[in-house]
Amino acid sequence: MSTYALTALARTTDPKTMLRRFLALDAVVTGANGIAYAVAAGPLGRFLGVDAGLLLGLGVFLALYGAAVGFLAARKSPPSLPVRAVVEANAVWAVLSVVALVAWLSPSTAGAVWTLLQAVTVGGFAALQYAALRAAGPGR
Fold this sequence. Notes:
By secondary structure, this protein is mostly helical. The protein contains 6 helices and no strands. It has helices at about 5-10, 15-40, 40-50, 50-75, 80-105, 110-135. The longest helix has 28 residues, at about 110-135.
């Protein structure tokens, strides 16, 4: 991804600010998704064709993960090791979402579309965060 594309998306030329913004966006989206899963596991489970217990567990996990990513985004200069962990976790989540859809989930059509959209979104977060981390340079 070009530096120009990153700066346009993040609306800044400062690599640290870019990284923090992409982490914050991830935290907000992931946290909101997790809270929705946890609070409305039953209705969402029926709509998506996924077990409500699975959604509840995922919801709690995602809310906590989103809070941790938000904490990292709030740091003036996020350390590279935890940022790399977020990038890798997002990449793994994206891949496992597709694997789960193919291998063992049997969701409704809406659930299948949602799972794929979620995988693309989380994979996009991983790519943006990785690119911003590289732009910030070594040691960041």
